[in-house]
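Fresh eyes needed here. Have a critical look at this protein's tokenised backbone.
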Amino acid sequence: MADLINLSRASVDASGRITLSGLATGIDFRAAADAIIKAKQIPADRLKTEISANDKKITALADLRTSLNTLKDALSKLRGAVSIGDADNIFKAKQAFASTGRTDGKTPSAASSLVGVALTNASALGSRTIEVLRVAKAHKVGSASFNSLTTDLGTARGQAPGSIVGSFNINGVAIQVLATDKLTDLRDRINAANTGTSATGVTASIVSVSTTEHYLVLTHDKTGTSITVNTEVGGVLNAMGISSNGGATFSNELQKPRTARFTADGLLDPDRFESRLVSSKTAALSTLTTGTTYPGSFQINGTGTATINYDSTTTLQTLVTAVNAQTATTGVTASIVDDDVGHRLVLTHGTSAAFTLTDTNGLLGALGVDNEQVVERTGNTITDLYAGTTLTLFGAEEGTKIKIDVERSLTSVKSQVTAFVDAYNALKTVINTHSYVDPATGAKTDKTGVLFGSRTLAEIEQKLANLAGTGVDGVSVDYRALVQVGIKFVDNKTLADPLKADTFVIDAAKLDAVLLSNPEDVRKLFTFDFSSSDPRVSLLGFTAKTAYNAAGYTINIGNVGPGQRSSVAVTSATATLNNASSFAATTSGLFQINGTNINYNIATDTLDSVVSAINAAAISGVTASKVTTSSGTFKIQINSATNPLTIGGDTGDLVSRMTLSTDGYLVGQANIGGAADGTANGTVSPSQASLTVTSPSTAEGLKVFYSGNSNVSGITLKYTIGLGAQLHFAVEQMVDAVSGSVENDIKALKSQNDLSNKRITEITQRLEIQRQTILDKFIAAEQSMAILKRALDSINQINATLSPRR
């Protein structure tokens, strides 16, 4: 019986029914059904093959997109884009060289030990000179000595346990001193108070000189700022040896707060003279200086003229007394500035008026008195002296001038140009891979990429080649093409690798020479270079549609007026307008903003309600707001987005009491024309003081800023569009996420795959139904054959029974 059943032909259908193929007929009808379905599956298999091919193309396009984006990024700093501080313009990159010198024959310290220099692209070219007279220092205050870190403060000071109990304030924040405090507890409590929005700004530390000698040290977190300690309770400041008079003075002041002091570029201060350092203010100047004849005198020529006499016993302090004795006549007062290592004489006119000194016997010269401007800052990091420049003061050295030369960073330019060439070559290699053909037959090979024959690939290749190989209109004829600055196409005949065909090579020596001799021409070759006949018009931006015009463009600007106006500051926004803490107006009435009435009642209205009334008037483009100043006072600020503000017609006195100032101007209308496009009045859309050119002008996309406050016409705008800008826009269009050619190809292939997958699903579902139908027919035939076979078997058995035996 086992021989009658072939288990390999057994199967279970979706409903759990078990069928055996070919029991009656001997035919493997399941294999036959599979063969039929497989033949009908060929269209779906072809679609799967197409999907696989499309996936490879999608991957290749994604790689192409990555190469294009790398090129775009390399061009982003070469195209002359407008950015804050020119941060995105490599041609504005700067580098600094610092050197030191003296005029007294002494050897100056190295510049790097005195100052650090960091530049941004906003730094201006040129030389600066500084002399660091003093670096800023933090205020440090120490306690008396404590003999233990593990016992309470009273015991550690040799007092009764728990006797130091009370509190004191550090910069306005209360610090508790508990009976059980150890020195470490107080340190931690002081540091805990130096957190949050009301932090003290003071850090506590412990200095352990030995196992039995420990000091609490308070250090201000900021240089040049004093620590204030007061509001003593329980005598704790005195007990700890910090202050014996409640914080008025310190018993152990380790370091006074010092501001940074320096001179810059030889600037003079006509109403202030200052000497060099002398080591003592009480020693005779004759022992501290040389080159002076004693006795002698000098004249102060201020409000009036006075003669100051001195002799060999005169000190810096007695000289100050002598000058101040003549202040009524000269208007000049004297004082002493104490530095950590010496003292300086300072002479200042009380009304900031200029005065002169006439030195008869050489004392002022011996003291080095001059009126060079002294600059002070609270810290050693100086960011506001020169635009785009950060100076970090490391040390002071009187008499040493530090020269800082700011130059173009040509190394940065060369590096960026090299990055562009590398990115272009990498992209060209990708393109060459997909375009590769057998040099003998002209047919593609197994080395050819999957994008062979791609229309998009061909368009990209041609666009880039056209731009890279052509010149820039409007620039110097000697520097209008890449080859003229040392960037040339490789000689394809010399290549061992055909995939490097039509790539760039850099003649480094030529590029270096051009950068050194003609950096501006290299810049114009790459960037969007803009100029205006009126310096009040500056470039804000441009687009791919902004076209070159040899004759330039003429822009006319009109309807210019205030765009933002602010009131004087008042102490209350909720006080009535007639209140002294508001505008102290005396008469109610109405005023007009751009012709619209604003009514006010000084007895009931406030700053807040005036703001609300202006906004409720719904004046076209006009809004009002309450502005809180840094000092906590309040202003009314009125802004217009479209037309200049006209505020007047006040029937009371509120407007005059508000004393409105103009904070900014806006342009109401403008037009532009250019000889090349024949447009006399191209559309210019103003937004405040920003002007954007729209069609039909060929300067479309040009965006400029007007910093003037009056109408002006006939301004000539000229610009050239360098290769960096042209290539950047071309690549940007290719990789645009919405309309870029590469993205469109990827979308199209993905769409094809989606349709193919849908079609495969439909074919698979239909064939599964057909397969089941075929199987059902085979099963029915099998069943019929089984019935016939059983009938035949019965007949054969009957025949066998009826037949006579022999």
Remarks:
- Residues 411-529 form one domain.
